Structures are given as structure tokens and as C-alpha cells.
Amino acid sequence: MLNTLSGRFLILTTVFVMLAEVLIFVPSIARFREDFLLDRLERAQIASLALLADDMLSNELEAELLANAGVFNVVLRRDEVRQLMLASPIPGQVSDTFDLRDASPWVLIRDAVEQFFSAENRIVRVIGEPVRDAGLLIEVTMETDPLRDAMIDYGVRIFWLSLVISVITAVLLFLAVRVFLVRPIKGVVGYMQRYARAPEDAHGIIQPHAGVKELREAEEALQMLQTELTHALKQRERLAQLGEAVAKVSHDLRNILTSAQLFTDRIEASEDPLVRRMAPKLVNSITRAVSLCESTLAFGRAEEPAPTLTMVRLRDITQDVVSSESLALEGSNIEIRNEVPEDMIVRADPEQMFRVIMNLVRNARQALEMSDRAGEITVAAEECENAWCIEVRDNGTGLPPKAQENLFTPFQGGVRKGGAGLGLAISSELVRGHGGELLLKSTGEDGTTFEIRLPKGDGTF
């Protein structure tokens, strides 16, 4: 109970209300003391008026009047004449004088606090103004014990009243918090627990209905998070199923391609010049296809295999890419240019880097073919300060905004109709395996440029 939100709110409310009552109590007790003293002055004035009406009061009646007024003597000043109206023996010396005529609130509070915490019975003189203009001033002498007893009694009654008010207020606020805060929060927690048990079930997604603005914003944020997570889980499940299917296809395709490799020796022995010229490229293509199938099978078990980094001549890799893609460009108005320096050596896995550059060049070719315009694809590279920078650029129409938002996300970054959007996702993963990064450097009406940054040294840029 006490460690719940509503329980702690109940305790804090009670404490704060009591604190507020304490702050009110101090000036209240000062006001009570002032009213008590003024009441004594008014009683004393009434007693003195009885004497003025009849000068021949007996000692017994005079003592009774003073007892009823709660004072020892009464002095009244009328017409600049100070008269001792009523008097009785004073049991001690007067220790203090309190003038209520021009006392400030701070003086009244100070005197009340001192009186409240002082247990000593003292004789004090109190001066005030007579009521109804019955004179210039009235002065009485009295004991402080009755005043202190009345103040304590008043303080106890105020304490119990404050306590009752605090409890009632706290209970009402407790019920309000239960209805307007705790119950909606428990509802949100219930939705979260239900969703955690079956995140793929769309019925577990929260439906915002809270009336409190902040809680509704929390519910809407949770709904968005659950929707995106459910979508991601479904996509992950589809990816797992696709991976299993691709692994099966790759297994069978690898066997077919391995059989095809057995015939390459005969092809290389052909005396046909065209066959002898094309045979090495065919052998290299089949070898790469077998390697790709083996890598796909490895990916089905885990992730992309770690790259085998060696110092390689980059132009050899880019030239293989250009030669492979040029076969698909025969008869088209698209040209591929290889501007990588002849002597540029980089640290990379040749097969993985071939796949990365091939994906970028193929994407550029397909984008130019979709635009149905003459185009040019350029592969270039240079040595930057801490990295080797490789660029693949085209002069197409640029990438649409939707593709830019999910560029490296599988199944979401595709531009070509029917494309899966896997090429850039795979390329980005391969480049990250090298410790580098694949960036969209620019895109627009003048074309698109992708940059591969391969780190030198310890892998930091």
C-alpha cells in the first residue's frame, strides 16, 4: 500500500496539508491571544462602568467584578485623567507590559510564541483602547496562566481540526488519483504485459483512450512503438523464412555450378579464338557464383563471414565489375568508365569488395535504364587522409525521397519495381565488416554518388 503511487500520494498530501496548517497556526494563535487580551480589556471596561454608575460599591462586589473580568486592577483614562477604577491585591511584580494599540503583526506573533512556550506564570500589564470611545485608554493587570491555558486549548482544537481536514483531503485526492491516474496507468501496464506475451498479435497493441493529456501522449507513443515492433518482428520472420528458402536454393545451385566447373577445362581447350577469350571470364563468373552460394549458406547459419583482408590492386576488382556489367549494356546508350588509378592498393577482401562495387554499379545501371536516357556510370577512387575513398556515381535522375529514408534497410530501400532492396543492405554490411562505411554522398537531378570508405591502419578514420 505505502509503496504504491496512490499510497505515497496519500501520505504526501497529509504531510503537506499539515505543513500548511502549521504555517496558518502561528498567526492564528497570535490572533487568538490578541482577542483574548481584548476580551479581558472589554470585561474590565464593563466592570469600571458599573463603578462609574454607582460610586458606593462594596468590596465584595468589586472583587467579584474583577474576578469576572479576570484581572487584578483596572485603570481608565478619561478626559486626560488617569483613574484607578477597580483594584485588588497583586500577588507579584509586573514583569511585562503589552500595548495592543499599535502592535504590528510580527510583534503579536513574537509575543504569542513566547507566551505559548513559556510555562512560568507572570503578572503582566495590558494596555488598549476602550470600546465605543469610552475613554482614551484602558489598562489592566492580569496573570498569564489563564491566557496560556486558553492558547493551548485552542491549539489542540486547531490541531485535531487540521488533522481531520488533512485526512479528508488526502482521502479525496487518493480516490481522485486512483480514478484519473492509477487506473489508466494499470491499463497501460496491462497492455504492455499482454503485448509481451504475444508481440506478434496485433490485438495486443494499445488503443489510446485516456482523458489525461500526458497519459494519452504516453499511450500514443506506446502504440507507435508496439506497431513498429510488430511490423519488425513480422519482417524478421519473413526474412528468416526467406533465408531458409535461399539457403536451400543456394545449396542446389552450388551443386549445379560445381558440375559446370567440370566442363571448363574442355572449354579452355577449344581452338575457337572467341571461346578462348571468353572462357576465363566464364570460369571466373562460375567460381564467384559458387563462392556466393557458399557464403549464402554461411549467412543462413549466422551472419556474413568475416572478410579475409589482403592488400589488393583495386583496379583489378573494378575492371572485373566493369567487364561483367558491360555484357549487359551491349546495344544500350549507357557507358561504364573505370577511373580507378592503376597503382592504387587497398586492404580488402577481393570477393566481398567485388560484390559491393558490383551491387552499386548494377543499381546505377538499372536506374539509368528505368529513366530511358543516355547515361554514364563512373567508378573512381582516391586516397583520403585516413581512408581509401571509392566512388560509384551516375548522371541519372536521383533517388526518390522514400528510397532515401530506408536506403540500407532490407525490403524497404528498393527503387526498381520488383526489386527487394537487398543489394545496398548487403553491401553496407560487407563494408562495415571491413571497418568502413557506405554513404550516400549526394543525389539529385544531376545524378547519384555513393562512397565507400575503407579505413587505413587500425580501422579509424
Describe the fold and architecture.
It is a single chain. This protein has 11 helices and 12 strands. It has helices at 5-53, 59-69, 105-116, 145-197, 213-261, 264-268, 273-301, 314-326, 350-371, 401-405, 423-433; strands at residues 73-78, 81-87, 94-99, 123-128, 137-143, 310-313, 334-339, 345-348, 375-383, 387-394, 437-444, 447-455. Among the domains are: 5-169, no CATH class; 306-455, Histidine kinase-like ATPase, C-terminal domain (Heat Shock Protein 90), CATH 3.30.565.10. The mean pLDDT is 78. The two termini are 56 Å apart. Helix 1 runs antiparallel to helix 2 (59-69), helix 5 packs across helix 7 (273-301) and helix 9 (350-371) packs antiparallel against helix 11. The strands form 3 sheets. The protein has a 5-stranded mixed sheet with strand order 2-1-5-4-3. By secondary structure, the protein is α+β, with helices and mostly antiparallel strands.
Write the layout of secondary structure elements.
Elements: H1 5-53, H2 59-69, E1 73-78, E2 81-87, E3 94-99, H3 105-116, E4 123-128, E5 137-143, H4 145-197, H5 213-261, H6 264-268, H7 273-301, E6 310-313, H8 314-326, E7 334-339, E8 345-348, H9 350-371, E9 375-383, E10 387-394, H10 401-405, H11 423-433, E11 437-444, E12 447-455
Parallel strand pairs: 3-4, 7-9
Antiparallel strand pairs: 1-2, 1-5, 4-5, 6-8, 9-10, 10-12, 11-12
Helix pairs in contact: 1-2, 1-3, 1-4, 5-7, 8-9, 9-11
Pfam family, one: HATPase_c
Keywords: ATP-binding, Coiled coil, Kinase, Membrane, Nucleotide-binding, Phosphoprotein, Transferase, Transmembrane, Transmembrane helix, Two-component regulatory system
Domain Histidine kinase: 248-458
